[in-house]
């Protein structure tokens, strides 16, 4: 991904917000919280990721991961997907019979938001790459961006111009993944 994007940051932010607002959630909890990073904030996020990962792993392993992080940093922006745990806890108290289901439903809400944003960006001709550097980076990111302590980071989606087509991924178990009954 690259930074040759012909849309304004405002347009992309509106696109992302509309995509997330269109997603359903269990009991209309609307627990998804989104942070959109452009420019220096986008670069700082990936610097933090690189610093944390570098401290956490041996140098020979970090080399490959560092390359991947640099590719993410080369993108135009990043969307951070959070789930507000306060909402989940309130619903658990309100409906104790379903208390253990709310964290699962929260993950489903997050997944729908991630897919909706990915699709909206793709429909606009932008490429995206979903990443999961959490939970290692959670504290450093929350401290730098002053993220609410009750927000749980679930995924990061870097996006930008498509610099080369994505490689085709083989699906050797295609037939085993689906069942159709009539």
From TrEMBL:
A Pfam family this chain is assigned to: Nitroreductase
| The species this protein was found in | Acinetobacter schindleri CIP 107287
Q: Which residues form a coiled coil?
A: none
Cellular location of this protein? Cytoplasm
Molecular function (GO) terms listed? oxidoreductase activity
Q: Where is the Nitroreductase domain?
A: 12-160
Superkingdom as given in the UniProt entry: Bacteria
Q: What is the lineage of its organism?
A: Bacteria, Pseudomonadati, Pseudomonadota, Gammaproteobacteria, Moraxellales
This protein is called: Nitroreductase domain-containing protein
Q: Name one GO biological process term.
A: cellular response to oxidative stress
Q: Quote the InterPro entries the UniProt record gives.
A: Frm2/Hbn1, Nitroreductase, Nitroreductase-like
Q: Which UniProt keywords apply?
A: Cytoplasm, Oxidoreductase
This entry carries the following GO cellular component terms, namely:
cytoplasm
């Amino acid at each position: 991904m690259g930074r040759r994007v012909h849309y304004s940051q405002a347009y992309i932010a509106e696109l992302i917000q509309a995509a997330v607002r269109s997603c359903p959630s269990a009991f209309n909890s609307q627990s998804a919280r989104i942070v959109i990073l452009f420019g220096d904030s986008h670069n700082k996020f990936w610097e933090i990721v690189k610093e944390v990962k570098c401290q956490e792993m041996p140098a020979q392993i970090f080399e490959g991961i560092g390359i991947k992080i640099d590719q993410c940093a080369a993108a135009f922006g990043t969307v951070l997907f959070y789930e507000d745990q306060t909402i989940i806890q309130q619903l658990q108290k309100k409906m104790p019979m379903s208390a253990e289901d709310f964290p699962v439903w929260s993950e489903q809400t997050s997944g729908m938001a991630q897919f909706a944003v990915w699709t909206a960006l793709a429909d606009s001709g932008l490429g995206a790459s979903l990443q999961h550097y959490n939970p290692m980076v959670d504290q450093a990111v929350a401290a730098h961006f002053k993220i609410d302590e009750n927000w749980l980071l679930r995924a990061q989606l870097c996006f930008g111009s498509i610099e080369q087509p994505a490689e085709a991924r083989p699906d050797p178990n295609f037939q085993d993944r689906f069942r159709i009954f009539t």
